């Protein structure tokens, strides 16, 4: 079972390999660096470089896999350690953490996103429940880096065990608090977090910096702590496997799995499939995409979800896209899997175009869509496929 490490696991351009075919590599060794915006990539195992192409480095593992890893080099400060470790956001687009945190908040806010917003995903929740002290230490490091005055942990009140642990860990710290998010989708959206915690409404395309804040998700905080305290590069990932697997619909959480391993390995570790099954969805139910058993685990992959087979549809279909739920490309992918003919497409009335991308102007506040649906009905649709999170 080879390890496949994509050269693009982050926002920006693909990284440039530092190794060549036949090279022996050690776990933690730096094997690719960004050319421009991006983040370092390190070997996640001991092995031999089998081949390199434009998209990835493929490594054949050694039979023996010691626990020890090559530590990142000593750095002059913690921000540089985060850069050396190749840390990117562990969910979403994978924005490089050292760039996001290279700012002076001048008394602003560090916010940890603990919404665990996508249904079925549970690895961030497990980390909050079992290691709340890691979250606190990570907030303190980021507050020092950014000169922030306050640290908030944004979490849903229904996560009672996590809330208890986090509040207890906060009692010995000043300037760090637990704050509650509404139990809605998409409460994990950065603009929703800023709106709910700080009372600032950010226009589409605006970043939390506009409100004097930076937001990092729970697992990203863990990797930051590992880089600073253990000099560990970003070579492992926390994931949730759920859906039609033998371990049960709610699935199983795996912590610190090696980057580059195939998702099929973790389906097997859940006992394999429940028959019949359909798509392997990478990510969450709302914003995930289709994958297969050979798809490698990357820095941004959080969920491996096995679905029911898609129902087949012969009626003429319309699709209604949403930023928070599913964009048009994903809905067309699902429609194709259903064998459907798409004859009309609309976007949620809250969608606005920002720099070529459609964004929701008020995430979490969903309007009625009668006008859009009636428009498609006039075009002849007989059935609707929608990704709007309120529907």
Automatic annotation (TrEMBL):
InterPro entries (alphabetical): Ion_transpt_RnfC/RsxC, Nuo51_FMN-bd, Nuo51_FMN-bd_sf, PR_assoc_PrdC, RnfC_N
One Gene Ontology term of the molecular function aspect: electron transfer activity
GO-annotated cellular components: membrane
Domain RnfC Barrel sandwich hybrid: 2-56
UniProt keywords, alphabetically: 4Fe-4S, Electron transport, Iron, Iron-sulfur, Metal-binding, Repeat, Transport
Domain (NADH-ubiquinone oxidoreductase 51kDa subunit FMN-binding) ranges: 82-225
Record carries keyword Iron: yes
Protein name: Respiratory-chain NADH dehydrogenase domain, 51 kDa subunit
Organism: Alkaliphilus metalliredigens (strain QYMF)
């Amino acid at each position: 079972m080879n390890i496949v490490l994509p050269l693009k696991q982050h926002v920006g351009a693909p990284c440039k390999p530092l190794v060549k075919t036949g090279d022996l590599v050690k776990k933690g060794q730096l094997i690719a660096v960004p050319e421009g915006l991006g983040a370092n990539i390190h070997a996640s195992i001991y092995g031999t470089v089998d081949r390199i192409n434009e998209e990835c480095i493929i490594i054949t593992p050694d039979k023996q896999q010691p626990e020890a890893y090559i530590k990142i080099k000593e750095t002059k400060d913690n921000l540089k350690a985060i850069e050396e470790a190749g840390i990117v956001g562990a969910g979403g687009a994978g924005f490089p953490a050292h760039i996001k945190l290279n700012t002076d908040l001048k008394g602003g806010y560090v916010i940890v996103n603990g919404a665990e917003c996508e249904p079925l995903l549970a690895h961030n929740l497990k980390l909050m429940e079992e290691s709340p002290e890691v979250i606190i230490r990570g907030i303190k490091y980021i507050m020092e880096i950014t000169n922030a005055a306050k640290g908030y942990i944004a979490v849903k009140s229904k996560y009672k065990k996590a809330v208890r642990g986090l509040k207890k860990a906060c009692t010995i710290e000043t300037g760090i608090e637990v704050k509650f998010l509404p139990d809605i989708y998409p409460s994990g959206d950065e603009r929703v977090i800023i709106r709910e915690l700080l009372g600032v409404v950010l226009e589409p395309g605006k970043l939390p910096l506009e409100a004097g804040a930076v937001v990092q998700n729970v697992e990203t905080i863990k990797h930051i702590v590992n880089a600073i305290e253990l000099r560990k590069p970003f070579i492992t990932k926390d994931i949730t496997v759920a859906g039609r697997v033998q371990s049960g619909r709610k699935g199983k959480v795996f912590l610190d799995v090696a980057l580059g391993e195939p998702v099929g390995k973790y389906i097997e570790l859940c006992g394999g499939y429940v028959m019949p099954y359909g798509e392997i969805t990478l990510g969450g139910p709302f914003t995930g995409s289709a994958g297969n058993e050979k798809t490698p685990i990357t820095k941004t992959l959080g969920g491996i979800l096995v679905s029911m087979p898609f129902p087949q549809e012969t009626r003429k279909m319309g699709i209604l896209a949403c930023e928070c739920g599913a964009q048009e490309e994903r809905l067309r992918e699902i429609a194709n899997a259903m064998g459907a003919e798409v004859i009309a497409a609309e976007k949620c009335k809250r969608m606005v175009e920002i720099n070529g991308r459609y964004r929701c102007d008020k995430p979490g506040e969903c309007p009625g869509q009668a006008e859009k649906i009636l428009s498609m009905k006039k075009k002849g649709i007989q059935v609707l496929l929608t990704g709007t999170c309120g529907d």
